[in-house]
Give the backbone structure.
Amino acid sequence: MTPPDSNQPLLTDVTTRWDDKFCDRCQMMSSSVIREILKFTQMPDVISFAGGLPAPELFPVREFEEASRHVLRTKGQEALQYSPTEGFLPLKEALADKMRKYGVPADPDNILLTNGSQQALDLIGRVFIDRGDVIITGKPTYLGALQAFKVYRPKIIGIPVDDQGMQVETLEVVLRRENPKFIYVLPNFHNPMGVTLNLERRIKLVRLAAEYGIPIIEDDPYGELRFEGEDISPIIVLHKENVLYLSTFSKILAPGIRLGWVVAPSNIIGRLVQAKQATDLHTSTFIQMITHDIMQRGILAAHSKIIRKVYGERRHIMTSAMQEHFPPGVTWTKPEGGLFMWAVTPETVDTMKLLQSAVEKKVAFVPGSVFYPDEDGQNTMRLNFSNANPEMIKEGIKRLGRVLEDQIA
Ligand SMILES: Cc1ncc(COP(=O)(O)O)c(C=O)c1O
């Protein structure tokens, strides 16, 4: 075929007004503030506590290389072919097994593989939320969930979260008054606060949700990253039929593979599968097969053990540095797992403004207000402790301590 002649005159010089063409839903789409912040914190001399990034030096790169080779050598044709929307069966079986060991009753039919948990959140929005529906989240909550759900135009009601997780005690009034579509909960090492929902509240949540017939979405990317204390029963174990459980390989293995999973009653999986078909047909066959290979070789289990240890040390280093360098009046959570800590400053400090001074001093965090479904949390911040190495954590917290001191003074 001959390439078009670039000197040929255009058929018309009228250009389309694209801005008039976008659908109403687009007004509800926004770039994540974190992604925007991440852009300028990627400068090499900035110490960033902003992203939710795992420690890259611990990624099992060589093991991935071996698993890729093995999959291509032994099942190359299958790995490069289309595959079922539900997911690669041996991986679903391995996940069902893993979930059962974690206490979650699951069969392969109850599992759907997704392109990260983020896709599961979008699929949940697609199949459950009509415009104007009420949904319940924590206050604060995971920003990516707010982004995913908002596209479908719900009314989001935030239930306050304290150091024992969502304040379930305040939920009943809202359930009675608003008849929400679902309750979205982060049970373990909450993003952004790092806190864990205690067992008493889990039980109360399950009872209330059942009484009012409201499903629970349990988003649990961090449950396996406990480095202190005792595991608490996942919410789905307390009421299998009423809970849709999400998890992901992002934090326990590597986020770049974009692989997550949903555990739910099989009729719900069916609906999510229909929504996923329209989105991307299925999750990468090749990646699912590599991940299955990694699990079979015991690499996932060994890797989570390593990162739990390292993240526990880093959390400890961060809290010690905060004690040394943060001025009086600033408090913080002490997570027993996961990736994040949450600090609260005196009310006179606006952390969105503080971030500008912090970046000038070459340290970054995420202002907490972005995690609120409403306008709140101006004097809060999220700090990630998994990504920077110990020296950087000490230096970064020292810099942030100075910035805080200047502001508070
Ligand atoms: C609570 C929560 N849910 C879901 C996700 C999305 O994870 P994934 O990388 O699997 O899409 C994250 C990522 O940070 C998260 O913190």
Notes: The mean pLDDT is 94. DSSP finds 13 helices and 14 strands in the chain. The pocket of pyridoxal-5'-phosphate is lined by residues 52, 116-118, 142, 144, 186, 191, 219, 221, 248, 250, 255, 260 (CB under 6 Å). The longest helix spans residues 299-325.
